[in-house]
Design goal:
With about 500 residues, this protein is α+β, with helices and mostly antiparallel strands. Helices cover about 45% and strands about 15% of the residues. It has 19 helices and 14 strands. Helix 1 packs across helix 2. The longest helix has 29 residues.
Length: about 500
């Protein structure tokens, strides 16, 4: 990236970020230990994408979107760890989310600015943490300050391992020794559900496993928690941070759906890289006390819904930005094929536009209706977020289908860069498949892009992730049913027609 000039000691460059990942972490791909995640084909592409964003923090043209000057230290810091105190802060923080979504085509479900919103969410309810575990509550603000000054990135990992639910206890993913049958050193079995196995004056030791640790292999630190569930035991009631290179953490990457060896013409998105999903195994991992936000209090894990509102706002904002890019892609297809005069085609494009505008409206409404928490953090409106996320995931498959439909045979009949380089084939393709104001090769490039974002294995992973990441639609509908207060409108009707109403 051009125009790089370091403006703050608290901001990494892309190369500094890459160097921070060369830290002897234990990462496996297809049974082999990765020696350097910054160069391995499965992880390096996504790291390069994020390195460009780190560099953009120093670019005068983009630094105001990604950073701000922290008044107490007089230096620029990343907006990722900003604690919003006003609606203007929320909107400023969203500039970072929108920028990353644009740079990644929205396919990074957990980019480096998502996880920070979880500790920031804890700060929004800090008094409740203080009332239950005061010895850990101040760690929240301390860690936010530490992470911001070190420009840290990494995931929030909360998904429990998927195993035989018929043998699981009430807590869901918890398997007992006899059921798991997996022995580790010392003769103790590894519990599936992350838990504390030992406590000392300096900290705690945790063992267990976590799933869908997106960007775990590509980040610095991770935020860990167990989801609120019936029967959560004190030793399973956790919220903490841990460096990714901590001894005892084993990261097992899934098969990659990107390919850095692919032609950037044949696969404009897939060739760039991806956020790598991983399965995480914790074998007696030590966590220092200053990194613990909750340990031993199940009631604090029950605050999860409120704490992660910021993360849900991030998800909705990213979906809105991605939808706007889909609207642009739809029009590019229409222009390339010269189909803009067909009413049915215009109708399809209009529906894509409606999807984008509706999601953007939900984002703006969630910010406009935001309120200060009791700890003076400006937090977005839960009803708008839940309704927006529900709208986003239920309509997402239809929008993807619309983009495919607009392309017609173009997605089926795609050609490689080598085809166009062939003296005979390339000439015939240019003669027979020319686009409107585009050469055949240019039109084919557009089809390759649409293929990557709608149809390829990379797109398939993204579609699956969006559905899992947002929670299934039935659960979101259940949340909306319980969260949305209909009482004022019910009373208005009761009063108007003479039924008893609440005062």
């Amino acid at each position: 990236m051009e125009k790089i000039s370091v403006v703050s000691k608290y901001l990494k460059t892309g190369e500094m970020y890459k160097e921070s990942l060369r830290d002897d972490r234990t990462v496996y791909y297809k049974g082999e230990l990765i020696q350097d995640v910054t160069t391995h084909p499965a992880t390096s592409g996504g790291i390069n994408i994020m390195a460009n964003i780190f560099d953009a923090q120093h670019n005068p043209e983009t630094q105001d979107k990604l950073t701000y000057i922290r008044s107490d230290i007089g230096e620029r810091v990343t907006k990722a760890w900003m604690i919003p105190r006003t609606k203007e802060d929320l909107k400023s923080r969203r500039e970072l989310t929108d920028y990353i979504a644009q740079e990644t085509f929205g396919v990074f479900g957990r980019p480096f600015d998502l996880a920070p919103l979880v500790p920031v969410g804890m700060a929004a309810y800090l008094s409740k943490f203080r009332s239950k575990r005061p010895e850990y509550a101040d760690n929240v603000l301390h860690y936010i300050d530490y992470a911001q000054k070190n420009n840290l990135m990494g995931p929030e990992v909360l998904v429990d391992p998927q195993n035989d639910r018929s043998k699981a206890a009430a807590a869901g993913a918890r398997l007992f020794d006899v059921e798991l049958g997996s022995q580790i050193k010392g003769g103790d079995s590894t519990p599936a559900l992350l838990r504390v196995v030992r406590e000392t004056e300096e900290g705690i030791y945790i063992s267990g496993a976590k799933a869908v640790g997106s960007i775990s292999s590509q980040g610095n630190e991770m935020i860990l928690s167990n989801l609120m569930r019936p029967g959560l035991l004190p030793e399973e009631s956790l919220w903490l941070s841990v460096p990714i290179n901590s001894p005892g953490i084993h990261i097992v990457c899934r098969e990659t759906v990107s390919c850095d060896a692919a032609s950037t013409y044949d696969h404009p998105v897939k060739s760039r890289g991806e956020e790598m999903d991983s399965f995480l195994i914790f074998d007696n991992v030590f966590v220092e006390k200053w990194r613990i936000f909750n340990y031993g209090v199940p009631e604090l894990n029950e605050l999860y819904g409120g704490v992660v509102l910021g993360a849900h706002w991030h998800i909705l904002s990213r979906l809105a930005t991605k939808a706007e890019m889909y609207a642009g892609a739809a029009q590019l297809i229409v222009d390339a094929l010269g189909t803009g005069k067909i009413p049915g085609v215009r109708s399809i494009v209009s529906e894509v536009i409606q999807y984008a505008q509706t999601l953007r409206a939900y984002v703006l409404a969630s910010e406009e209706l935001a309120k200060l928490t009791e700890d003076d953090v400006m937090w977005p409106d839960v009803n708008m977020l839940t309704a927006g996320r529900l709208y986003g995931i239920t309509h997402y498959p239809r929008i993807i289908h619309h983009l495919q439909e607009l392309c017609g045979q173009g997605l089926v009949m795609r050609f490689s860069e080598k085809d166009y380089d062939h003296p005979f084939i390339g000439g015939k393709l240019e003669e027979l498949l020319v686009g409107r104001d585009l050469t055949s090769k240019q039109k084919n490039l557009l089809m390759n892009f649409i293929w990557d974002i709608t149809t390829d294995s990379h797109a398939g992973r993204v579609g699956l992730f969006e559905n899992v990441n947002a929670l299934p639609a039935p659960l979101l509908r259940e949340r909306l049913y319980h969260e949305y207060d209909r009482t004022p409108f019910m009373n208005q009707i009761r009063k108007s027609i003479g039924l008893p109403y609440e005062v």
